[in-house]
Amino acid sequence: MFTPLLQGLLLGAGMIIPIGAQNAHVLNHGIKKNHHFLAASVCMFCDVVLIALGVFGGAKLIATSPTLVTIISWGGITFLLTYASLSFRQVWQNNYEKEQQLATKFNKSPWLVIIATLSVTLLNPHVYLDTVMILGSVGGKFQGNERIAFAVGTMLASIIWFYSLAGAAAKMSPWLSQAKVKRTIDTLVGLIMCAIALSLFNSL
After folding, report:
1. pTM value?
2. pLDDT, tens only, 156-174
3. 3-state secondary structure 130-169
């Protein structure tokens, strides 16, 4: 029981920790101290549901349709490149100090944070590839209680990571909110998104 749980925890961490749209979203809310734990909770909840769907049958269902896998992959590529372009636009415009002033003055309502986080998560096809397809395919190889333990391990990885990211970003907000640091973060996010999109394209 412990081995599948540990495998799930490590594989889940490997899939979730690399910077993606969800991580960038939670990081930004943490830097602004704008309902960051709420954003982390929504990401975590979505991951838990999608992992459960994948491990307990969803991965096999999607795998039976190569066309659907291709559509999801192209959707993921499009989403990632769009997110990358938005990050690069932020770098180009370099309006970080003005944005910080506006963020301090007008914090988003909890409902807007929930809607924005759901959009970043559920409208990103790459999330389905990571959680439902990859984690689901590996988890589907286990049987009975071992499958449950694997699923719990991957879910724990999501819970630990998103809450840690939100808390760390808020704690380091005075440093991370500096214009030059935010510009560096946006540059890295854009480059990583492009790299993930390229890896998806090469896998087609």
Report:
1. 0.86
2. 999 999 999 999 999 998 8
3. HHHHHHHHHHCCCCHHHHHHHHHHHHHHHHHHHHHHHHHH
